[in-house]
Amino acid sequence: MTSRTPHSSRTDSVLVVTPIVQVADLRKRYGEIEAVRGISFFVEPGEVFGLLGPNGAGKTTTVEILEGLRKADAGSATVAGVNVVADPSGVKRRIGVQLQASAFPDNLTARETVRFFAACYDLDVDELALLRLVELDERAGQPQAKLSGGQRQRLSIATALVNQPQLLFLDEPTTGLDPQARHNLWDLIRGIQARGTTVILTTHYLDEPEILCDRVAIMDEGNIVALDPPRKLIDDLLARGFTKPVLQQKANLEDVFLALTGHELREG
Amino acid sequence: MRQTRRLFALLVRAYIRDRTALFFSLVVPLMLMVIFGYLNLGDFGRVGLAIDDQATNQSSAQLAQILKGIETLRVRELPTDEALSMLRRTELDMLIVIPPGFAIAPARPGQTVPQIVIYGDDARPQQVAVGRQIVAQVIDRLSFAVTQTAPVIGVKEETIQGVRLRYVDFLVPGILGLNMMQLAIFSVAFALVADKQKGVLRRIMATPVRVPNLLAAHVLTRLVIATAQIAVLLLVALVLFNVTIVGGVAPLFAVALLGTILFLTIGFALAGWATTENQVPAIAQLITLPQFFFSGVFFSKNAAPELIRPITNWLPLTLLNDALREISVQGATLWDVRVQILGLLVWTLAGFILAVRLFRFEKF
Q1: Preferred mutation among A95, A97, A120 to probe B, highest tally of B CBs within 10 A
Q2: C-beta separation of A171 from A202 below 8 A
Q3: Which one is predicted more confidently, A43 or A10?
């Protein structure tokens, strides 16, 4: 196991393990708009890697290129040892994908939805075991359309795990969920990491990567403007003399909310 | 194969659970058949009359001229053979055969009265009755003009025996063809555009699924539903209307399923082109509505204005309905309807090319 120093993200550092994702000078343009302007980074196996940035920063384009859903204009990207440009289908076999809006074929139960995606990979899976992993085994026979927002996101993660991927892409997995469901999903993501799966997470919420991510890349206007562990990014900012205008509270409103309503899921 | 089978099993299950789609694909066609079957749309319209003038003299020309001047009649001159086969297809209601030597003149003693033979279509008794009345009146008028007394021409009436074609016999193959078109175009276009809009296709494309397998599963699903639909429609037609299928059920299924495949290619092309669900009904109606009226579903394809008939006669649904009707009503074999089958295959190829060009999974 490699020691993950705060500086391991720098390109000049010595790598002991082969990165699971290696991106070099990746570019993508849509007509006039240059969505991705030559970014380079790598992701180490086993880490939770966050990709942050405002809307239009180029995160989704970057992720979709890595997922084999979009073609890059220039540069190279290797995912799980496979060249994404040359073999998008080979990449798809090795990764799991949860898209921003989880959409499944109509009129299937939760269990059948998992089976559908297993069929897409041409694999036989223990559907109930996967549903148990995301705490949906009791909902196996329920139509997926009847599941709550949090349940649907967990089902989405179950469908992304059918091929036992080395790398899991999660695109804004907690958007639209209540605090209980978000905390529950965080636990699930930690559990997936503990099983040895690498996770690439894009999100708008900044508390999420602070808690979950080993390293985050912050994108703006098609460039990566910062890439480090969250703690280091914060320390660096403070070292530059940054102070918050108001004093840090010992608790915030979310803590109040959770203290009053509990951590248990409020679903179905 | 295995992948196709597994996806197909799930898609069929999902399709059957979709009560709205099932309603439209089964109840609506049944309603159409029952309503139009009892409505007997064949009662409407003018009387189609053919004249076979074997006399070709002044008298026969005079008779034909008078008949052509009567508004209720749609008169055409046709040889008996051709007219009889059109009668069997209910493209005509009546045929009058004017025998050689026909004359409007007083009968001399001992001479036989010239006999006009009238053939009537059993399936449209109202039209035939009206037509007979008119012809009888015309003949009476001509006779009286000559003799001032008794008729000089006798009328001998015959009906076509053998194929007893009623309107519902004509209707059922048309309903069958219509529903293959509706099912194939609407079910594919709506389902896939909805999947496209909700991001389902995009999610599926994030898996290494083989696209031809996925498409095959979708096509197979529709063919199974279409087969069930044909079976139910035919069963109701047999039980409720006692429809006879002269040519047998197997060739009827074969042609109907070929038609389904043709319209599926159009459905996929439409699904590929459309980006929102709102576009689907508009374009689907644009494709299906002209065929609904001009392809011989509820009434003869000859109801289309003469000007556009060279086009409407080659529309996909016209070819399909013609083939289905020939089989079901006339007892035609697949070989007998080879022209229509060839036409359907050409359309299928065209639809397939269009679908491949418009339907790009990679786009989603």
Answers
A1: A120
A2: yes
A3: A43
